[in-house]
Amino acid sequence: MSRSLLQSNKPHLPSVAKPDFRRCSPSRTSQPSFRRRLKYFYWRLVRMQGSSRAIARGFACGIFAGMMPLFGLQTILGVLLAVPFRGNKFLAMTGTWVSNPLTYVPIYTFNFHVGRWLLNKSDLMDLNFDSWQQMKESGAEISLILLVGCLAVGFVSGILSYFISLRLITKFRAAYHLQRQRKNWHSHQQKNGSEIL
After folding, report:
1. Contact at 8 Å (CB) between 173 and 138?
2. How many CB atoms lie under 10 A from the CB of residue 67?
3. I want to staple 166 with a disulfide (CB 3.0 to 4.6 A). Which of 16, 45, 56, 107 is the partner?
């Protein structure tokens, strides 16, 4: 059998295109936008199990924990606080995001000034940091001032965030249920119309 005959009887397979890895590379358009993330969080919020008060309590616990100077432990503190207050643990974790590397400095600076005002420590800036003993004493005092300020600001922020989030969650859920009722009503009307026809 000749070579030309073998080549003519050879089955023709479809050619496979070489993969273009430039298309597979992640681009900015493939990343979820801030608007999409916000929309996802909104839908997760309105469909979340539990009462609106429990969700708001969890968020308030997270905000309180986020004000504490416990780097890396704020999420754990938020969840632990949500247990006795019967708050939503997911929102407790989310609430701690109020403090992050971008907000650490302004939050704790503000908390420190609040603590200094509450403890009436306006003479703290007159300390001499040349002495090691005085630095040790002032370090303990600064820590106490910061802790008092964080507790005060966290308490007020937690209460405010509870009432604000409760109002928003109730409003979002009411709008979501109204939208579902309208959708069900429209589908019911279309079904009845098709049956009549």
Report:
1. no
2. 26
3. 56
Contacts of residue 150, defined as CB under 8 A and 6 or more positions apart, other chains included, come to: 67, 68, 69, 108, 111, 115
SS3 44: helix
pLDDT reported for residue 46 = 58
Rounded distance, CA 170 to CA 59, Å? 14
Instruction: Indicate the range of 107-111, 135-139, 172-176 predicted with least confidence.
Output: 135-139
Spatial distance between the Cα atoms of 164 and 179, rounded to a whole number of angstroms: 23
Coil, helix or strand for 168?
A: helix
Show the CA angle centred on residue 167, arms to residues 35 and 54, nearest 5°: 95
Rounded Cα distance between 163 and 80, Å, is 21
Instruction: Spell out the domain ranges in the chain.
Output: 50-186
DSSP character at residue 82: H
Element (DSSP H or E) covering residue 193: helix 132-196
